[in-house]
UniProtKB/TrEMBL annotation:
Signal peptide (UniProt feature, chain positions): none
GO biological process entries: isoleucine biosynthetic process; L-serine catabolic process; L-threonine catabolic process
Gene name of the record: thrC_2
Domain called Tryptophan synthase beta chain-like PALP: residue spans: 20-327
Pfam family, one: PALP
Keywords carried by this UniProt record: Lyase, Pyridoxal phosphate
Requisite cofactors: pyridoxal 5'-phosphate
EC number: 4.2.3.1
Protein known as: Threonine synthase
Classification via InterPro entries: Ser/Thr_Dehydratase (IPR050147), TrpB-like_PALP (IPR001926), TrpB-like_PALP_sf (IPR036052)
Keyword Lyase: yes
GO molecular function, one term: threonine synthase activity
Amino acid sequence: MSVWNWSDRYSPTVDQDLQVTLGEGQTACVRSRRIGPALGIKNLYFKLESTNPSGSYKDRFAALAISHMLQREQNTCLATSSGNTGAALAAYCAAAGIRCQIAVVETAPLAKLQQMMAYGAEIQRVRGFGTDSAITNLVFDRLQQLAAQPQCELQISAYRYSPLGMQGVESIAFEIEAQISDLGRSVDHVFCPAGGGGLTLATARGFQKTSARPAVHCVQPEGNDTIASPLRNRCDQATDVQCTTSISGLQVASVIDGHDVIACCSKSKGTGYTVSDAETFEVQKRLAQEEGIFCEPAGAVAMAGALNAFRSGQLDPEATVVCIVSGSGFKDATSIQQMNQRSRCELVDVDDLFQPLTMRS
């Protein structure tokens, strides 16, 4: 398979000895074995960003962001997070010996908070952060003030705040192009989950630097529709909302990279899709039980959008479609408990083990 080197591609100015890496990138792009064929989508693929070191695509961002901090001899990373950014930054700060302080959205799952603390990060949840756009903007303003000191750097996984780190996320596009090309095909559509829009924007910008020209689509929960509907309705501006979705990681009520997402997706001939929380949880379950892909709800949003696009006749069955699976199922224990609520794990004696044995036909 074709390979790339992130330091050569994005930041040749970073000294080789100061690059912080935990083995991020080069994630698999696997073909659907059951969902796609059952629906008649012949070339459906999943880009498994859930297999990065801390469990999400945010490791691509953190690797580059923290390497730049190390080169500038900065010793304190300030950040905001709904979970995955914080976990990634905490991991790479631990590797680099940099202090990490994170303002976390109020509704962040416990598993993500535990992961950040395990890496040694200092974290605080903020009331209303992530669901109220006014409070969310105040948090950003407050952290920008705190990060004015030379030894500090504010790291938010959005081009608006951390353009150097976000260049690392563009590597997703390079890998998809190489992986699909190695199969003798070209990629036609890429579906991306979006909260603030950074992943979608990075993917679209990454493809602008390749020979591939897929339509890049933005998929959002209905309860955080800052970008998808404006994009679909051919507006050029995203909009703040009062966030009501329960999908962790995509609760970003304010416009961050939204305007640029609309411009880049439109240029790629992509559009926007919204999906309900119920649809998302159902697709999360289907990915686990039909494809063997264990993802958090946010990681199922892109596939939910692709299903809606296909069912409404907007995808050619012959097209090559890639859905980004952004984070691991281990990130959100509550959603997994909900998925398994009808399953049982009984304690039995050895003589009763799977008796009577029922053979599948």
